[in-house]
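Researcher: Re-running this chain for the archive, since the previous output was lost when a drive failed. Same request as before.
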Amino acid sequence: MKISLLITLIFVLIFGHVSAQNQKVQSAQIYLRSGELDLALPAIEEAVVHEKTINSAKAWYYRGEIYLAIYSSENPEFQKLLTADPLLVSLESYRKCKVLDAQDDFGAEVNKRLQSITGEIYNRGVEHYNAKDYKAALLDFELVLIDNPNDTNVLFNAALTSEKAKEPAKAIQYLNALLKLNYHSPQIYISLASNKKAIS
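Model: Regenerated structure tokens:
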């Protein structure tokens, strides 16, 4: 009888602990819906590092949603909550959700979000390029390439930006990737020769 009671108590404690962490995800979701991003952020951050919910696709999905909402918000108080690039954190969160989402519960939504965010990051890369901040532009184009490795437009911009950023090895890598995708133009071969010469 005592052993049975002990097992029941252990089960209740374990289930209660897991339930409490799932509650953090639920709370974050509710705060997000009500626009209380200052409360949603700490709740979701606690959930994604806790051992009981660290592998929860739902937790990572809502982390992505919360950071994206903060990025899109015009409230300066929400911007002060951030210590990292919200677009990047959101992107990483959706990627993590995709990996963990064995039941494909969030697949369609995550794909839409990834497409939207990579589009935003690509545009930011173009802005950095136009401002002659080639290192920042290259970082943005490379982020986009992780989800879109065969996008010839992004590859071309990454190659051109690598050259401007004085990174000939990367330029060669992206130019060769373009050739493998049957993207042939005189400029590709001129740039390849120029970057190979820069390395030698």
